[in-house]
Amino acid sequence: MKRLIKNGILVDAQGESQQDILLENGLIQRVAPQITPTPDTEVIDASGMYVMPGGIDVHTHFNIDVGIAKSCDDFFTGTRAAACGGTTTIVDHMGFGPKGCSLHHQLEVYHRDAVDKAVIDYSFHGVVQHVDDDILHEMQSMVEEEGISSFKLYLTYGYKLNDADVLRSLKRLHEVGALTTVHPENDAAIALRRSELVAQGKKAPIYHAHSRPLECEAEAIGRMINLAQLAGNVPLYIVHLSNGLGLDYLRLAKKAGQPVWVETCPQYLLLDMNHYLREDGLKYVLSPPLRPHAELDKLWVGIADGSIDTVATDHCTFPYSQRLDMGRDDFTRCPNGLPGVENRMPLLFSEGVMCGRITPSRFVELTSANPAKLFGMWPQKGNLNVGSDADLVIFDPHAKVTIQHQDLHDNVDYSPYEGFHCQGWPVMTLSRGEVVATQGKFTGKAGHGRFIRRKPFAYPED
Ligand SMILES: [Zn+2]
């Protein structure tokens, strides 16, 4: 089936121009100012709309088992929600497996979870939960044979790594062509603060934020920047940045030429820690937590000035009913994580592009081009070049939509963005040329999504 999108404003990370775009066999076949359709071509009129590379969300947790609970979106409902929100590829962070398991163990579990379920293309980040010679050796085959060219290390939670193991991982992962990503929070500081708060009976949701203030995160970011330098100035990617101090450390490192990149998420740009004081404050328990309002503005500066590289979601869903059951009397018992995969694109488009903070091209860079480049999917994805996958989103800048959970396509029972007004909305999503969502309706099918065997890490050229 051939599809021709006519009269739209094509946007990639370089700029925008009015062009037609022809899709065939799942790929972008032609881009030109005027393309005349043949009789077998379905024509989509995109007059007045932006036609952009589909979103790439490089931080989701579908089907994750966090020990005390299992998240409620699987690779079907999670990718369905993603597709309806203009995202055409996700890279999921695999959860921890049994103690001592190999790197391949979790990969096999996740392949089983995703195959026949995903409605858009997907990949996984590896997870390093312990370090020994076998694991260091195994990293190579994960990259070369399995196409897993990024891994995550945790500095907190049960399988946190110590500094020596972080150093060994950073060095080895770079050697084998993988990008190291890290969840940076100072575990010992958090554990101490949490135990002090709990001992004082301070167990309401607001104390979740007080138990892990931004210094815990910024300290660990600074530490990771220095460890990456010590490991041989190796590439490093910081996930889910929530505060301005951590961003300042990253700016310093970038200015010195160190290869570091950083992701933030819509929740850190749009929601502040006052949400924990609401009656439904448990809805917002995630780590790192929501921050004081001043931090939001600092992150927006980073979005605008180029010092933040990607926007992902950390989509990890636990129903509000379950959060209440578990965490009503004690925030430490509430599973951590927020929904968001369906609203990343419209929220950043509305608050970023339509509010005049960023250009449409910068939006594409943050949501698609940079993720593709950093995670081994460029130029297959993240652009509108002839020969690339026909993964597209069409945005109507005139549409006004109020986010209501009842209209979303995930499997959770609330949205942290309930009632948000969006100017501009994704009205059609195409995955390899197939329309997987249109006008808020899911039109794709389970199993359409393919596993993306990602290329080894390469330094982005610009
Ligand atoms: Zn995460």
Polypeptide structure, described:
There is one protein chain. The two termini are 35 Å apart. The chain has helices at residues 75-84, 103-114, 133-144, 163-175, 187-199, 206-211, 214-230, 244-255, 266-270, 293-305, 320-327, 344-354, 360-374, and strands at residues 2-11, 16-24, 27-32, 41-45, 50-53, 55-60, 87-93, 121-127, 150-154, 179-183, 236-241, 260-264, 310-311, 392-402, 421-431, 434-438, 441-442. The mean pLDDT is 97. The relative contact order is 0.18. The chain is globular and about 70 Å long. α7 packs parallel to α8. Helices cover 32% and strands 23% of the residues. It contains 13 helices and 17 strands. The protein folds into 2 domains: 2-52 and 383-442, Urease, subunit C, domain 1; 54-96 and 124-374, TIM Barrel. The longest helix is centred in the middle third of the chain and has 17 residues, at 214-230. It is of the alpha/beta class and 462 residues long. Strands 1, 2, 3, 4, 5, 14, 15, 16 and 17 form a 9-stranded mixed beta sheet that branches. Strands 6-7-8-9-10-11-12-13 form an 8-stranded parallel beta sheet. The structure holds zinc ion.
